[in-house]
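anyone else get weird line breaks when pasting these?? whatever heres mine. first is seq + C-alpha cells for prot A
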Amino acid sequence: MKFRINWLSSCVSELTNSIPGFGNLNDSEKEKLIIQKFLLSDVKLSSVGMLPENVTTLHLVHLPGPYVLQVNKIDNINCQGYTFRV
C-alpha cells in the first residue's frame, strides 16, 4: 500500500495535534494509528492505485499479493430498483 504524500502529511499533522505525546511514540505505535485513520478514509484520497492498469480486461487471472479495495456501491440484484450505498 502506498499512501499519497499529502494525505500522509496531513494525517501525521492531525495525529500530532490530537494525541498528546504522538511524537514520542515508537514507529510501530504511530503506524497503527495511521492505519486506523487510513481505514476510515476515502481510498481515492489517501492512497495510490496498486492494481494493474489493465485490470478491467483480465479474466480468471490470479493477482499475487494483498490489495486494499473500497466498496462504493452495492446493488441488490434480487430486489429491482433498490440500491444500497456505502
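and prot B, same format (seq, then C-alpha cells)
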Amino acid sequence: MQIWLAGPLLGGEVQDARHLVELLAAFGLTALIGLERTVQGKSAGLRTQTIVGTSAALIMLVSKYGFGDVLHAGSIVLDPSRVAAQIVSGIGFLGAGLIITRRGAVHGLTTAAAVWESAAVGMAAGAGLLLLAIAVVVLHFISALAFNTVERQLAAKLRGTTRVHIIYENGRGVLREVLRISGQQNWQLTELDADAYDIDDGEVRVTMTLSGNKMGNARDVFAELDGVIAVLRADEETD
C-alpha cells in the first residue's frame, strides 16, 4: 500500500504503510522498556522512553526517505546515514544529564543506558530491522530483571553488601543519623532511593544499599535509632 502525498508542503514524496508500521513498532517496543522503568520507579519512564524511541525512528525514516524529491543522479547525492548519525550525539547529551554523583556514588547510569537503548531500538525499527529491535527489547528484560537479582546476590556474597528498607518518622533527623552511623562503621552507601513520602502519616520510607565489613548487624543497629519504625531486608514485603 502506497500513498502519494502531493503538494508543495508535503514534498511530493511516496510514503507506504511500511514506514508507519516501523514507526508504530518503535513506539510499542520502547513503551515496553518504559513500562519496566516506570515499575522500577526510575525517573525516565514510559513517556521518556517512548518519546525517545519514536523520535529516533522518525529521524531514521527522514534520513532514509525524506530527501528523495531533491536527489538527482550525477548531480545531487546524499548520504542516507548523515541525519541518523546525529541521534548518537544527541542521546549522549540527554543521557549525560541523567547521571549525577552524590556522596561519592554515581546514580542514573542504568537510566541513561535505558534511554540510549530506546534510541537504538527506535533506529533499528526505523531502518526496518524489526527482528533486531524486538530481540533487544527481550534482552533488556533479561538484563533488567534476571540480571538484577543475580547482581545483588553476587554483590552480597563477594563484597558484603546489604540492601534494606528503613521506615521512619518524618522530622526526627533519622536519615542524618543513619548516614552518620554508616560513616562510623565504614559502610559505603552505594544507593539511596526514596520509595515513598507520606506527609499525612508522617512516615518516610527509603531503600539503602550498603557495602562493607560486618554488614550482618546493620539492621539491628538502625532499628535501635529513635524514630525508626521498621528495618526490613529488600526481599521482605511490607503492607
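btw re prot B: DSSP finds seven helices and eight strands in the chain. The longest strand covers residues 188-198.
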